[in-house]
Write a structure and sequence with these properties.
492 residues; alpha/beta; Rossmann fold; 3 domains; six-stranded mixed beta sheet; six-stranded parallel beta sheet; 21 strands; 20% strand; nucleotide-binding
Length: 492
Amino acid sequence: MSKPEIPRVAFFIDTNVLLHDRECLSKFGYNIVVIPIWALEELDKFKKHQDELGANAREISRQLEKLREHGSLAKGAPTETGGLLFVDYNGTDFNKLPVGLLRNNDNRIILVAKAWQEKLDKLKKGAKQKEPRPKYSEVIIVSKDINLRLKADACGITAQDYLGDKTIERIEMLYSGMETHVLPNRMKFVLNDHTVRQQGLIPAKALADTLRLDDIHANACCQFRVDKTTVNAIYKKATRCFRIERKMGPARKCLVMPSNIEQRFAYELLMDPEISIVTLNGKAGSGKTLMALLAGYEQLEDVYDQLLVYRPCHEIGAPLGFRPGSTEEKFDPFTLPIFDNMKLLLDARVSLCATGQQGGKHVAKGFKELREPKESKNGSYAKVKDLITKGLLDIGPINHIRGRSIARSFIIVDESQNLTPLEVKTIISRAGEGTKVVLTGDVYQIDNPLVDSISNGLSHTVERLKGSELAGHITLLKCERSNLAELAATLL
């Protein structure tokens, strides 16, 4: 007796999904994938671009050509996951759409899906199927364009965002990287034990009766509180111990220091030689880029040969259009945030931390300036450029990393929330022996229309790598830039 045929879902893929994830065609399983022919027309416009969009467009075309070897795209070519892929052009009768909708490719996608929906409705009413097409139980448009999804829904077609690379349902579920544990008073002796303090390690077994150790991720940032005692530590799961936060000694290159608990944890992760990738999420002014640059600069030459900073070229506000000059000259405006932060580090005369001894000088709590004779306004920028000239620092657009193999370098990818998961994967795969990768960004500030707070490369990496011995993450909550910046980040 033959098994009953499992109903398939017919998914209609928008161009932006193809450009967002070149592996999307393999993520629909046993179901039917329909690409409207106009989506291929739009894809063709990107194939010569020398960026991630161009690479994705070319790869999708190659995949379709390979599928065509196994069957007609018009009649349905079998996929490796057991599904079928169609390229359809049944989207010319705009009379089936509400009056006033433009005759554009977005609305043609709705028309193609509507034609399949009408056939499905007729079959449900008992009509005979004239064409030898596989059975399907539902029609769904998949698009990253919110307005297209809204229009499709208004036209009676189910529409959804692309879910193939989303690891969480809501952004509130994103792993924070930090845990606070209030311990019973009887555990105070464990935290204050002389051997523990001397070695800087708390054996996990000493806290096993109080904590669910299996639920704590590797490299989790843990704050333990007992009465008035507070201890900050990183959980080293492989060795079953909590490594207590190390004090910052006097032998440092600059006086800029972490100013709050999250920044201190970030610095710990960034300085940890056992961690190869660190992700820092935080609102504007929280110090994520500054902490990354601080740790990279502190370890420059001793641990790493180069400090490499890459940024995407997404603009805020209306785009400025064509810019004359070389690639470096066009990218100059995007380097200013890095220059500003490096300026602060190289001035190296501002402490943002609690009382301590730095280079033999007492540093008071808060902002204590210990400036040398004033330089000219651009003097500290000259110091940054000097590092670049010496080959110790490089700041460039993100597409410059493609094809490279980078060893013994501290790589910072700033504004990584504007990258796709595949772009981040490409970047991380460039890391050679002795290289650390740091992703910084604010998942609530998205400038790239192809990603959102959940599907961006930073959120994706945080969720996929949490628990790995090679990865660490912390969310920075407090704005340290200024009271005005804090007000804007919180209320505007």
